[in-house]
Design goal:
Elements: H1 3-7, E1 12-16, E2 19-24, E3 27-30, E4 39-40, E5 43-46, E6 52-60, E7 71-80, E8 88-90, E9 100-106, E10 112-119, H2 126-138, E11 147-154, E12 165-167, E13 174-176, E14 179-180, E15 182-183, E16 189-196, E17 218-224, E18 233-239, E19 241-248, E20 254-260, E21 278-280, E22 285-287, H3 296-299, E23 304-309, E24 317-321, E25 328-335, E26 341-347, E27 353-359, E28 370-375, E29 386-389, E30 395-399, E31 408-412
Parallel strand pairs: 9-14
Antiparallel strand pairs: 1-2, 1-28, 3-31, 4-6, 5-6, 6-7, 7-8, 9-10, 10-11, 11-12, 13-16, 15-16, 16-17, 17-18, 19-20, 20-23, 21-22, 23-24, 25-26, 26-27, 27-28, 29-30, 30-31
Length: 418
């Protein structure tokens, strides 16, 4: 029996407390990445005509201790006109070359936007050249490139792409993300990305340790009012977080599903810092945010958090941890026409998988039942889901791949039990 025959009829499961309560039918389709691709973190969007487009970096095998793919390889762009059953691979190259995919979006007029991180050639961006000169003047032995964050667009369905235009990352040395671009009703675009002053702990222009207020990663919302050509506004969201996805409710409120991420500090040992935490000068460590138990030093890391914006992403409030009992991140929010709100996440446990959590009050509370869309084989799960919803309520969820699990699209509908 081949792997497709093995998985194609597997149902989705509705569980609670590790007990399967019910199952529901689902269809599963393999994604045709080449055999040398050992990791893919898919970003899924659909055109106004309901053509599904998948964008992902095709990571190659690496030599790190965990055996994880760490060589960026090439980006992949695939299209499906039959809701995920079959896929066409499109040629896709980024300019400048040598980068990796960061964000994806398809606008209401069909324009496709891609952001990517890549080395910046000299003579392209004056302020970047000044930064590079300062780097090598102050620390000539520090051989670290200054990658830029670029945006490219296609107006012919992904057949051709413009050369990348660098987005101004200042005051940060770099930006990175793994997100979906949100288009508001007035055409304004929102994009999440995290800024860094150095390599989490070191200022790359001086080689010195960063002060606490500049240590780690700083998640922001970038704003464009010209169709993604320029992104002049940079609004702070949260600290020590990454890979945020945005969703706009019918009320106009925007929800952010946020992956908490340790700032990777090792002196002093602050690896347990949580999103929303603050630096305590007297005690020399990170303090949990108000209302979060001290155990959040562990539970807050790589867990899902929710924040809300009432002003189209300019300011954020009501930050809270969505505690489900597992190490779940990142995640995405979707809302069905019947009012069910879905938070689809990757669980990083062992064996791990892709879960869907359900709320009937727009994320204030969550049903204790979990919909398991896919279970993974150990030792590590590819935990980056991405989904689109069709007008008839059909959901297509893309699940990533690694050395032990193939890339699979799961086509399903909300179980009637909810």
């Amino acid at each position: 029996m081949d792997i497709l025959q093995h998985i194609e009829n597997l149902p989705i499961e509705i569980v609670t407390q590790d007990r399967v309560l019910a199952t529901a039918p689902a269809e599963r389709f393999l994604i045709p990445f080449s055999d040398n691709v050992k990791r893919a973190d898919p970003l899924l969007c659909k055109t106004p005509e309901d053509t599904v487009c998948l964008l992902s970096q095709g990571w190659l095998s690496g030599s790190n201790p965990e055996g994880l793919a760490d060589s960026p390889g090439i980006p992949w762009l695939l299209k499906s006109a039959d809701r995920g059953e079959s896929w066409e691979v499109l040629p896709f190259e980024m300019t400048p070359a040598g980068g990796n995919v960061q964000a994806f979006g398809i606008l209401r007029d069909g324009t496709m936007l891609v952001t990517f991180e890549a080395p910046v050639p000299e003579g392209i961006t004056p302020w970047r050249d000044e930064m590079r000169a300062k780097l090598y003047e102050s620390n000539p032995d520090l051989n670290r490139s200054l990658n830029g964050y670029f945006v490219s667009r296609s107006t012919d369905g992904g057949q051709t792409w413009t050369a990348g235009e660098e987005i101004d990352s200042r005051p940060f040395h770099s930006l990175s993300s793994l997100s979906i671009i949100l288009e508001l009703p007035d055409g304004t675009l929102l994009l999440t990305a995290n800024g860094r002053y150095g390599t989490h702990t070191i200022d790359i222009t001086t080689g010195e340790r960063l002060p606490p207020e500049k240590t780690g990663i700083f998640e922001h919302v970038l704003r464009s009012t010209d169709g993604g050509r320029t992104w002049p506004e940079l609004h702070p969201l949260v600290t020590h977080a990454a890979e945020t996805r945005l969703f706009r409710l019918p009320s106009g409120k925007i929800l952010a599903s946020i992956r908490a991420q340790s700032p990777f500090l090792d002196e002093p040992p602050l690896t347990g810092a949580t999103i929303g935490s603050a630096w305590d000068d007297d005690d020399g460590h990170w303090m949990p945010p108000p209302g979060v138990d001290a155990s959040a030093k562990q539970s807050g890391q790589k867990r899902m958090w929710i924040a809300e914006s009432d002003d189209d992403g300019r300011t954020w409030n009501r930050l809270r941890q969505a505690v489900f009992g597992g190490e779940e991140s990142p995640g995405e929010i979707h809302r069905l026409d019947d009012g069910h709100l879905l938070l689809i996440t990757g669980d990083r446990g062992d064996p791990g998988g892709i879960w869907a959590h359900v709320s009937n009050d727009d994320s204030r509370t969550w049903d204790p039942r979990i919909i398991i869309l896919r279970r993974y084989e150990p030792p590590r799960s590819p935990d980056y889901p991405s989904s689109v919803i069709f007008d008839d309520g059909t959901i297509l969820t893309m699940t990533g791949l690694n050395q032990h699990n193939p890339a699979v699209a799961v086509r399903w509908q909300m179980p009637k039990d909810f």
